[in-house]
Specification:
- The protein has helices spanning 10-18, 26-37, 51-65, 80-93, 110-118, 128-137, 153-158, 162-170, 187-196, 227-239, 254-266, 280-291, 325-332, 353-363, and strands at 41-44, 73-76, 101-104, 123-126, 147-151, 177-182, 201-204, 215-221, 246-250, 271-274, 297-300, 313-318, 342-348, 368-369, 404-405.
- The protein is α/β, with parallel strands linked by helices.
- The strands form two sheets. It has an eight-stranded parallel sheet with strand order 3-4-2-5-6-1-7-15. It has a seven-stranded parallel sheet with strand order 10-11-9-12-13-8-14, sandwiched between helices.
- It starts with 9 loop residues before the first helix and ends with a strand.
- The protein has two domains: 4-208, Rossmann fold, CATH 3.40.50; 215-379, Rossmann fold, CATH 3.40.50.
């Protein structure tokens, strides 16, 4: 199947071809026809599978079929990096003559964003907090919104954006199309769907919480005080490998990311850091250096788990086990993208074992434990089969919410 067979117009299929997209991904095959119908949609697929194009392509077509003034499409994303990525994708995919797109994110100048909005745009891609700033100042008019997209909605709820989302949704027309995309589904997201959507169709191309099959996963048991030494040892081992290209290292805290980046730089690794304490300019420079290959190792907090779209990330290393099992899926989804092989490594202290077992239950996969001489010691724990993850219908027991599944 090609993009034309999904119902996309020649101008859009040519744009796809010019960008090297010849065959739709599974989520695109199933979601694009549904979005073209104009109905609400919940799209659930692992990271790196083309969810952004799955909602942008049909939305662009529907806008171009009926051009009119005003902000008609609003896309909300949890992080500046992801919002910037979506806006860039729109500008790449939209044919000449399509509506202009404005990026509205924190860390950037309000005046410049205000001036861009006043020029007249049809698409706004935003983080919720900064968009509310513009709403309160009257610098953006959302009364003409026809399509609302909540991308990585579970992450937005995790980091406390629900009050802002609720206020934004209350200020846009109730007669609209709502599209919700995420790699995982949670009870909070189900509640959000019930409160913002009308008879949504569910497009789910992988079991919820399933990690990408292209990623080789390993866990290294280690004493807490030896984590940094083990990380340095692993980086030295991998640097000698022909497959070593770019490494994304995740920490739980901003302070931890900063400390670790300084340690790596002191050991002559080409390393940089990205977290919420850095300015927007610093974050963009760090991401740009990583994309261009000048930075080999990027240390990040979970702010980057869903906002980094970089080709050839060969390794993801979880220096800290994430607090939420779902975050593990998003972290390791930064590698093994577009069908390429990737490796995910997690450093596991004895107190992290319960968290690792929760991750295994979520993904339905055991993660191989590898003990390196001098690091495992008494803390080494052999892998065991994960307990079966409970199967839960969307909406949970006793709830009436049942999205309609889209036909294959």
């Amino acid at each position: 199947m090609n993009f034309a067979e999904l119902g996309l117009q020649p101008a859009l299929t040519r744009r796809c071809e010019s960008l090297g997209y010849t065959e739709p991904t599974p989520i695109q095959k199933r979601a694009i026809p549904v979005v073209l119908e104009g109905v609400d949609l919940i799209g659930c697929a692992e990271t790196g599978t083309g969810k952004t194009a799955a909602f942008l392509l049909p939305t662009i077509q529907r806008m171009n079929e009926r051009p009119r003034p005003g902000v008609r499409v609003l896309v909300l994303a949890p992080t500046r990096e992801l919002a910037s990525q979506i806006a860039d994708s729109y500008r790449q995919l939209a044919p000449k003559g399509s509506a202009a797109c404005a990026l509205v994110i924190g860390g950037a100048g309000m005046t410049r964003q205000r001036d861009e909005l006043r020029k007249g745009v049809g698409v706004v891609v935003a983080t919720p907090g900064r968009l509310l700033d513009h709403v309160e100042r009257g610098t953006v008019n959302l009364s003409q919104v026809e399509v609302l997209v909540l991308d990585e909605a579970d992450r937005m709820l995790d980091i406390g954006f629900w009050p802002a989302i609720r206020r934004i949704v209350a200020g846009i027309p109730t007669k609209r199309q709502t599209l919700l995309f995420s790699a995982t589904m949670s009870p909070a997201i189900e509640e959000l769907a019930r409160s913002t959507m009308k008879e949504p169709r569910l497009v789910e191309v992988n079991p919820r919480g399933k990690a990408a099959g292209t990623v080789e996963q390993r866990a290294y048991p280690v004493a807490a005080q030896s984590k940094t030494a083990l990380l340095l040892d692993l980086l030295e081992r991998e640097r000698e490998s022909d497959n070593f290209e770019r490494v994304l290292v995740f920490t739980r805290t901003r302070r931890g990311a900063e400390r670790l980046a300084h340690v790596l730089q002191a050991r002559e690794h080409d390393a940089d850091q990205i977290h919420s304490d850095r300015t927007q300019g610093q974050r963009e420079a760090a991401l740009r250096g990583f994309k261009e290959g000048r930075t080999r190792v990027l240390v990040a907090t979970d702010i980057a788990a869903r906002g980094i779209d970089v080709e050839s990330i060969s390794h993801v290393i979880n220096y800290d086990v994430p607090e939420q099992p779902e975050d593990y899926v998003h972290r390791i989804g930064r590698t093994g993208r577009a069908g390429k092989a990737g490796r995910a490594i997690t450093l596991v202290t004895p107190v992290d074992e319960l968290s690792m077992r929760a991750i295994e239950r979520l993904t339905g996969q055991p993660v191989e434990r590898v003990v390196l001489p001098g690091f495992g010691g008494a803390s080494a724990v052999s892998a065991s089969k994960p307990s079966a993850a409970p199967r839960r219908a969307l909406g949970g027991r006793g709830r009436s919410f049942r999205p309609r599944r889209a036909s294959r």
